[in-house]
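A protein record pairs a chain with a discrete description of its three-dimensional fold. The following entry can be read in just this way:
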Amino acid sequence: MSKIDGERAFLSVNIAVLTVSDSRTEADDTSGHTLVERITEAGHKVVDKRIIKDDKDLLVAQLKRWIADPNVDVVISTGGTGLTGRDVTPEAFHAVYEKEIEGFGELFRQLSFPKIGTSTIQSRATGGLAHGTYLFALPGSPGACRDGWDDILRWQLDSRHRPCNLVELMPRLLEHLKPHD
């Protein structure tokens, strides 16, 4: 059960949104717009939004740019997580991960099961961490974006969430790069 501690301060997080699609444009990117709307309503800042074709090299290059950008704390993508030949988002994300957050994909599929039944096995939603940047890949439907944000990410990206959240870990994500005494 998610719980917000009213005694703690809310800390806004800088989030980049990526739509992975060969056919979407800014005008009809309903999934990307769903994420932007929910992120903004939650009090976070969308610092960039892009639409990129289903191409692993293009995706890896964009992810690396955002990972290197100190103004991006989190990347959330939508699309390209299925099983078809053009679905390469998980492969691109895994190419840049330093650590995978296995529980994200597991929980996403668990939460999806009551809504879409066994079709949830077709989702390769994934989460991970690279150079202090959280990376989350959601399926390409607005419903999947709502589920991923409303049921998981909204809570884990809220600094007031108890018993723990991803925001409170952010100051320690790069400690492995600091020299030891």
User: Anything to note?
Assistant: The CA atoms of residues 99 and 129 lie 5 Å apart. The chain has a mean pLDDT of 95. The first helix runs from residue 30 to 41.
